[in-house]
Amino acid sequence: MPLLENGQIIQDTWQIAVEGVSLPAGDVLVPLARLSEGLGRNSDGRLGVVLSSADEVETLRDALPRLDVVALTFPVFRDGRPFTQARALREHLHFKGEIRAGGHVLPDQYEFLLRCGVTAIDLPGSSDPAVWQRAHEAFTVAYQPSILKEQAEGFAFRRRLA
Amino acid sequence: MDRRNSRRDAEGTSVITANRLLDGRIVWLAADGQWTTLIQDAKLYPNSAVEEALKARNARAQEEALVGIYGVQVTETASGPLPVTSRERIRAAGPSVHPDFTPDWHAPHPAPYA
Amino acid sequence: MSHSPSAALPVGHYAYDDVDRTFLKQRVAQFKDQVERRLSGALTEEEFKPLRLMNGLYLQLHAYMLRVAIPYGVLDAKQMRTLAHIARTYDRDYGHFTTRQNIQFNWIRLEDTPEILNVLADTDMHAIQTSGNCIRNVTADQFAGAAADEVLDPRVYAEILRQWSTLHPEFTFLPRKFKIAISGSQQDRVAARFHDIGLISREGENGRPVFEVFVGGGLGRTPIIGVRLRDDLPEEDLIAYLEAVLRVYNAHGRRDNIYKARIKILVQALGTEEFLNQVNAEFAAMDRARYRLPESTVEAIRARFGAPDFAPAGNAAEKLAAQRKADRAFDAWVHTNTHPHKQSGYCSITISCKPAGGIPGDVTSAQMDLLADLAERYSFGELRITHLQNVVLGHVRQDALYDVWQALEKNGLGEANIGFITDIVACPGLDYCALANARSIPIAQKLSSRFANADLQREIGPLRLNISGCINACGHHHAGHIGILGVDKRGEEAFQITLGGSAGDGDASIGQILGSAMSEDETVDAIARIIDTYLSRRTAGERFIETCRRLGTAPFKDAAYATA
Ligand code: HEM
Ligand code: SF4
């Protein structure tokens, strides 16, 4: 599936671990349950982990320096836990790699995701990237600090959105 | 899909209702396949046939700009179908505390969009 | 007599600047786009629903209902006129004030909504987060900035919280809605212990405020009184601490069952101690500097609130005393409908939206315009909506009261019943609400007609009567001294009575169900017998709630179910 990153559609070159099959060479995303298998893999491909919305990001603390991607999953767009997971990855665990969001996500959530530290969207099949871009440009101000380095807009907690 | 409070049983008779997406107003399915705001014009379905009809209508909900299509159990009276529950009677007649707000209420002056 | 506006700033609420106005217009454009995507089929109804709810738009029984935010219950005359305009132009000429200090319009069309939001934005209003699983309109007490016992003006903090929670990136898809209330004095006038978070302020040692923090209170189907998490939260940690509470809730609140999704259930499930541990752990780990609320920010927000420019008291008090002597009906109204003001020569007045036989909280567009006129002439342009569905003029000179009262009298707003049995709180119930079991309004109308006699009401004294049309408890029936709950008996409407609830002032309690449900008329009769029992059994000066507590529910239950 295509990835949306910095306003660009790019091809996703990562492979997803297939259940019951040993991990392939190259860049691979593994579920949390197979993290140690991934870490022990004998390959110079990069490693990422896929979290469900119920997983605790704290469990990644030790592995995180060796991960390039954390992929968060919306089972349904109303399940807002991935927002907290993303923000905690950045704020508590100081993760610097890519955070993806996938599953059932709406363009209307795009700006929130970015402000929580998500950097790439695993676009649902039928998505129109123009709608996502519009969502990103819809607002020029936000009313609270975020983990991004945003400029103050006037007083209080207001932030200017790029 | 049945609704809480619409109290359909195996034997009785039902009518089909929905809300219009654009203005939210209540409508009833008439015999000619059109949707009407007056329950008096609604087509009666034996409960054995209503699920089938609901399925067909739900499949066209987006196209017909409707939301929340479901069946309502009624009894037949001289003045037309009467829902068995208070909830559906209020839906059919309008709020009891504003007797003037009947389903065919029109704004005394035209709204700006008209 | 009129007040010259001392500055361009509105009295009692935050003044928008261009940045805030741009934001509102962008929000309208976003919603317009969402509506178009819904109509084209790009958004399903399931996807669109939470988006429209976050703009206050519900699909109710007969039509869409739009809930407009009135932050901390304060609005100005211009804004009230906008509401009147919306009622006239896009609805059926009336609106309904709610217990969350908002207003609802019952006959809105989806296709008009972007335009309505645009009209609202023109006077700095919106419907953002008046519904949906997000942080809702923050409520504050209705005598803010006027009450004689006030420690700080809670509206400044409510505004800070409003801004912070507006389109919060992390907390817009919570397990369930989240309601915050803040009281500016030790006396709790906001039912802080019945909110997801309740804040009660007092002055700290360094002259800056500190907050008592309650969490996990609520009514609904599981009424729970909130637990105290903090005694003395410093002002500068206010935002950080709320972030911590919400993070724990967003991560761990239940999402599998909407009836168990409120934070109160999480607090109960974990136990207060474990919940507190998790909040403290989060609070300790977070980047506190980022969320610090410096004094300068509080003052910057405060500086955008206009303050009334009071005139010297002169002989206002004497003039009022003479008028009260001369007119007994006016005297009765002053007695029940006014509240002491910190400024000598002034008082606050509560305008009853509960006429005998009327619909509690409903106000016509003409009445809205009148309220706007009165606010402009007599109360620095400021109006407040209370959580008891009435309207407050915060700062009225005592020698203007007679004029105000006469204007209200002429327009059906002069009822002298604040705090009495006919000052009924009622939700819309089955006449409008898609979730209802029974109608709340007709029974409220019957009760307010039954007890309409002014002498009888005064004889009965202070009594809160609250009515909800279903267990969601929008009418706060559990918090009523007498509560009425609509239930469904095989498709027919029926009512349960609760007794002994109370919302505030340090003695919050939850009403006890008296017994099995009755029909509407039986319920009205049963309540009349409960009142008779109170009148015959009370001791001198004892209020209804006190008699309930002393005697317990048994004698009232006997009276309620005694058949003639
Ligand atoms: C007519 C449309 C309305 C709908 C569909 C609606 C729906 C609901 C629902 C489902 C709940 C329970 C939520 C929960 O406990 O998780 C609730 C609670 C509440 N509603 Fe409404 N409501 C409506 C109108 C009102 C009105 C008119 C008021 C004010 C008079 C109001 C004030 C409240 C309050 C204060 C609560 C919170 C009770 C608590 O603390 O749990 N609502 N509403
Ligand atoms: S209490 Fe029930 S009936 Fe009343 S407004 Fe709330 S959801 Fe509707």
Automatic annotation (TrEMBL), chain A:
A Pfam family per the record: DUF934
Domain of life: Bacteria
InterPro entries assigned: UCP030820
Name of the featured protein: Oxidoreductase
Organism listed in the record: Acetobacter cerevisiae
From TrEMBL, chain B:
Pfam families according to UniProt: DUF2849
Annotated InterPro entries: DUF2849 (IPR021270)
Domain of life: Bacteria
Region (Disordered) location: 94-114
Name the UniProt record assigns to this protein: Sulfite reductase
Organism of derivation: Acetobacter cerevisiae
UniProtKB/TrEMBL annotation, chain C:
Single GO MF annotation: heme binding
Nitrite/sulphite reductase 4Fe-4S domain span: 131-283, 422-559
SUPFAM superfamilies: Nitrite and sulphite reductase 4Fe-4S domain-like, Nitrite/Sulfite reductase N-terminal domain-like
Annotated keywords: 4Fe-4S, Heme, Iron, Iron-sulfur, Metal-binding, Oxidoreductase
Boundaries of every Nitrite/Sulfite reductase ferredoxin-like domain copy: 64-121, 339-410
InterPro entries per the UniProt record, alphabetical: NIR_SIR_4Fe-4S, NiRdtase/SiRdtase_haem-b_fer, Nit/Sulf_reduc_fer-like_dom_sf, NO2/SO3_Rdtase_4Fe4S_dom, NO2/SO3_Rdtase_4Fe4S_sf
Coiled-coil residue spans: none
A Pfam family assignment: NIR_SIR
Record's keyword annotation contains Heme: yes
PANTHER family, per the entry: BLR3264 PROTEIN, FERREDOXIN--NITRITE REDUCTASE, CHLOROPLASTIC
Protein name: Sulfite reductase
